[in-house]
Amino acid sequence: MKRFVAIWFPFLKTDWLSIRQPSLRELPFVLVAPDHGRMLITAANEKAMTQSIHAGMVAADAKAMYPLLTVIDDQSGLSERLLKRIAEWCIRFSPCVAVDGDDGLFLDATGCTHLWGGDEEYVKDIITRFNKYGYTVRVAIADTIGAAWAISRFGKDDFIIEPGQQSTALLYLPAAALRLDDDTTDRLNKLGLRQVKDFIGMPKSALRRRFVKSESPEVRKPERNFNRKGAKVQREFSTFNFQFSILTRINQALGLEEEFIQPVHPPVPYEERLPCMEPIVTATGIEIALQRLLETLCKRLQQEGKGIRTAVLKCYRVDGKIEQVEIGTIRASHHVEHLFRLFELKISSIEPALGIELFILEATKVEEHVSLQSTIWKSNGGLQDEKISELLDRLSNKIGASAIHRYLPNEHYWPERSVKAADSLDEEATTTWKLDRPRPLQLLARPEMIEVMAPIPDYPPMNFRYKGKLHTIIKADGPERIEQEWWIEQGQHRDYYYVEDEEGCRYWLFRLGHYEDAEYRWFIHGVFV
Amino acid sequence: MHAQQLIDIGTINHSFPNSQFPLGVNHEFICNSKESLAASSGFIAGILSSMLQKGGAVVWISSSQIIFPPALVSFGIDPSQLIFIHLRNQKEINWTIEEALKCEGLAAVVGELSFVDLTISRRLQLAAEQSRVTGFLLRHQPKQMNITAFTCRWQIQSVQSETTDGLPGIGFPRWQVELLKVRNGKPGSWQLEWVLGKFKPVASKSSLHNKEHKQAV
């Protein structure tokens, strides 16, 4: 059995403005937007409503009726932005929250309310929290989305519909409570069918004949959200108007037909939440929360033979902001201690401000966990050792993965291209390391130009000057010619010499280009052991 | 398991307690120039090659130096068993070396330290002793030779190689190895050569001269 909560903000935009500018709270004011050359009221606060000023009126008319009215320019897309933010904040009540049109929210509260001690406490908590912020809300809870929506908008006194009672609760509500389009509502009213009870019992064939338009075939797109009037969908994919027929709406409200909502954050399959009784402000508190979340999540992952590759810890603050830290691992892991140490490095970056009231740990990327027979490999597992991948996780989370390298041989003679960076710890070499020629242990980041004195063509130099110091060459070996790989890069070949100076230091020098050419240059490229 | 492993560096072994190259501790190498940094790296590579005989992994942390992996092959090391970390910030390097020394899964850690005081050295030494990971710390152009808590202090310089029978070219890499300080052992100075996968002591020049002299006589 499912439970849904519908939240309606009758004064969403004006409430938001009053929160930002408390001076407006006592004044009747309206928000206006230009429309066909006149200013149309898009929202009116409660004070203005009592003066019978409502949305849809022309601002000039309203001013005429009530000259003291404050008029403020509306911002386009304001309610969408607000609702999205509020929906994210509402994740503390349920993981599955959806935006409903431009003035409401849906919460899938299935299995959530008992954490608050029942439906009544749950709804009460939502209302008090919103009221504390300054938002006027009407909240209803029922078995179906349709019933919750109807009760939140048109309900009189009882906003908590007991399981299975939605059909009785709907009876005395007006026809518009079923989220019908304007045409259908008008026609029902014209026929004197003002309340749901008047037509809900009618045979389906009769309703279909009279109210389902044949020219607009019923398209069932359950993930679309309709605005309050159920007509125009102001979204990017709203090129044509989808309308649910009266039959579908009745079935949805009664729970005979399934209805879906599109959550603002799709629920992650591996997620743990920890609400706190008191807001947490200290690092120790965060650590305790993290430890608990990891223990429960890892236990579950272990049972399923899975491990975390990336995880996010989200901290919902009292002031509505969300602080989050992310970690990643090289190999899938469900080792609590290890994951905790990864997070531990980043706890200092969380700003609790006034306090954190909800922690959510999400495993955003989960992979199969391969457990090696650790005892066999314990002595010399090489890179396969779990401890090494744990060390690298810690390092890459602190100093960044770009600083860590592992090299494999590459099929190239050109020294800079003879090694390639490995992508992972498990990647294996596709070719063997070359052993035939001496290579310096220390390679310069790029060859540096030197001044040399070389006697005859193709002989090693007699001396060279590097960084102001003259090195006299006593012994030398070479040349080793390495041609530029023309299919990759154009350029001259290099003639490498392995030389030793009078102090016993050994260097790797090369001449770029032919000796006969006018433009040859000498470089130093490395230092031998 | 580390304790059973024997590192053969010839006569130098007699300078250590129990005639065994100390593992699971830190060795510092004083490098005053780029060349001595390369020479020390080569000496370390020689020691690593016998440490890695039975597998194991090494983390090599550097700031200025760029190791060319193919060169390690001539020391009998598979470069793909090494993890290289390039960092600029000295604080990050110290932290990384300490974290690596704490990781029991590693055989050894090579790190380039430019600044170290007694407190840092003691931390690193404790980390190594606890996890039994051997640390080789290259101190590139140290500002001062301060007291450290490391077990050994080395200084390695390249010296001129010699080819057999005066053939042209360059001989095996040869170093002047100075053990400046060793805990419970006696310091000394030797000349070593890296010959076909092994350290080989070089007969001192004087004795060589004597031999030549005798032959001449």
Percent of residues of chain B in helical segments? 25-40%
Task: Work out the number of β strands of chain B.
Answer: 9
- Structural class label of chain B: alpha/beta
Number of helices of chain A: 15
Oligomer state equals heterodimer
Rounded mean pLDDT of chain A is 86
pLDDT < 50 runs, ≥5 residues of chain A: 216-241
- For the record, give the distance between the C-alpha atoms at the N and C termini of chain A, rounded to a whole number: 75 Å
Number of beta strands of chain A: 20
What strand line-up does the widest sheet of chain B have?
3-2-4-5-1-6-7-8-9
Number of helices of chain B: 5
Describe this structure in words.
The complex is a heterodimer of chains A (529) and B (217). Chain A has 529 residues and is of the alpha+beta class. Chain A has 4 domains: 4-170, MutS, DNA mismatch repair protein, domain I (3-Layer(aba) Sandwich), CATH 3.40.1170; 176-254, no CATH class; 271-372, Dna Ligase, domain 1; 442-527, no CATH class. Chain A contains 15 helices and 20 strands. In chain A, the strands form 5 sheets. A 6-stranded antiparallel barrel of chain A has the order 15-16-17-18-19-20. Chain A has a 4-stranded antiparallel beta sheet with strand order 5-6-1-7. Chain A is elongated, with a radius of gyration of 36 Å. The model of chain A is unreliable at 216-241 (pLDDT under 50). With 217 residues, chain B is α/β, with parallel strands linked by helices. Chain B has one domain (21-216): P-loop containing nucleotide triphosphate hydrolases (Rossmann fold, 3-Layer(aba) Sandwich), CATH 3.40.50. Chain B is 29% helix and 27% strand. Chain B has 5 helices and 9 strands; from the N terminus they run E-H-E-H-E-H-E-H-E-E-E-E-E-H. Chain B has a 9-stranded mixed beta sheet with strand order 3-2-4-5-1-6-7-8-9, with helices on both faces. Chain B is globular and about 50 Å long. At the A-B interface, helix 15, strand 12, strand 13, strand 15 and strand 17 of A face helix 1, helix 2, strand 3, helix 3 and strand 6 of B.
